[in-house]
Amino acid sequence: MKSLREELWFDIQGRRGYLNITPQVAALVKKSGVQDGLCLVNAMHITASVYINDDEQGLLHDYDEWLEKLAPHEPVSKYRHNRTGEDNADAHMKRQLMGREVVVAITNGKLDFGPWEQIFYGEFDGNRKKRVLVKIIGE
Amino acid sequence: MKSLREELWFDIQGRRGYLNITPQVAALVKKSGVQDGLCLVNAMHITASVYINDDEQGLLHDYDEWLEKLAPHEPVSKYRHNRTGEDNADAHMKRQLMGREVVVAITNGKLDFGPWEQIFYGEFDGNRKKRVLVKIIGE
Amino acid sequence: MKSLREELWFDIQGRRGYLNITPQVAALVKKSGVQDGLCLVNAMHITASVYINDDEQGLLHDYDEWLEKLAPHEPVSKYRHNRTGEDNADAHMKRQLMGREVVVAITNGKLDFGPWEQIFYGEFDGNRKKRVLVKIIGE
To answer: Best residue in B117, B120, B136, B137 to probe C by mutation, most C CBs within 10 Å?
Structure first.
């Protein structure tokens, strides 16, 4: 069994942002030498997501508006979590809606994707450095 | 390490639909010869889901109504994504709520399930052929 | 390839509850002897979740309130699923929002976590014994 473990670091400016990280993950798959296996990509922070969807600017705008509707940032005081001095309770909800992780098949040494699948890092409490873990196992 | 990679194709009539694909996945586990490992099942399209829940007609109706409430199809014009000529922005949201993928343990050559777990393909933008990827690794 | 498969049993009192099960999962990783691999943790029941987020009491309260808003228990009669004699249709929705499973990397014999990541069992239809599956594969 071969394996590879690396961290990707991001520092999204602004409270929220959506970044296509497919090229970085694909490069790590190549580096791993794994031809056949699984690639786990997960946010290491609990107010961020890793998800797979379309790289289309209108959709990213729609996601942001939709997440804000289902889990509004304001009023900050309505969340008990924010009594700890944080103001990011909504980010913990948004992260659950979009998910923590994706598991992607590796076939013939590449991410085994459908035509429009792209891996995104979703940030819901930005302006700080945060990490994504990439773990690859296979042969 | 053994592995198997296959695609399942579906063509759901109507905009949305929910299909129990457990028998097809179970057959692939058997075909793989893997006794002990993991089975990844993911939608290869970004307006569809693979999820695990109950095969009960009332629940499928409730899911559909609930998804339409949290991410309505109409008005189509409220989504910026639909300016691209699509009308499926809501399907991208519904897919995030239900999830892209499931990872199921394989034990003694079988899907290692609780009593009511069934794998479903959830279609949110149908009337076209779409694929699900099954990737199995183990020994 | 090494592997380990164990069940964790819980009996949450009350309809809903959120339990940090990280210590139990970490103990199983140690028991497995796997230094490098993947750990799947999933609810074996379809009205419960396994998810990763913060172990903060205010946040657990906020999650519960938020889930009840997005997928209300009442009125029980509005869900077709409940015509089967159940009253837990809302629990099937809440479970989809929080997710069925997590896949966690194992590195150097330990759960490879960011600073605040904790594994939770989320119960949405309690007062009965239910199981979580832990499946570990690697070397």
So the answer is: B117
